[in-house]
Amino acid sequence: MSLGPLILDTGGWLYALAGDEPYASALRDARPAIVPGLVLAEVDWHLRKRREDMGRLLKEVTQGAYAYEAVTLEDVERAAQVDKKFADLGLGIVDASIVAMAERLDLRRILTIDADFSAVRMGKRWRKAFELAVALP
User: Which of 26, 46, 37, 42 lies closest to 136 in space, CA to CA?
Assistant: First the structure.
């Protein structure tokens, strides 16, 4: 049963890839599972000593198992605004770009282990909250 589109954040995706439940189930149930370009780069960094695993993952991405979404220049500009608005969270470019991309794609579901996404709001009036695919402890 598909629960619809799901944006992948680095930690949640890594947990899912490792087979950790309920992250793995959330990933299996997502259609599509959207991989932001900067998240793919972070995952590559985490798998830097596991090149075969990263190679398999890249093959899955390029063969359509995931929906790859490049960060646009507009996303970068919006990410800077998001990072400034939520400066107390210390989001950084990757998480802030996920917020910008979610706004652009009109998506709210995210697979993450990062509690910051519980506090972040998006949209013109900063009212839209993310829906966490897996509840955080």
Answer: 26
* Under 8 Å between Cβ of 91 and 9: no
Token digits of residue 56: 């398999």
For the chain, the DSSP string reads -----EEEPHHHHHHHHTT-TTHHHHHHH-SSEEEEHHHHHHHHHHTTT-HHHHHHHHHHHHTTSSEEEPPPHHHHHHHHHHHHHTGGGT-HHHHHHHHHHHHHHT--EEE-S-THHHH-EETTTT-EEPEESS---
Specify the amino acid at residue 108.
R
- Burial of 83-101, coded b for 16+ CB within 10 Å and e otherwise, reads bebbeebebebbbbbbbbb
Report pLDDT digits (tens) over 15-72: 999 999 999 999 999 999 999 999 999 999 999 999 999 999 999 999 999 999 999 9
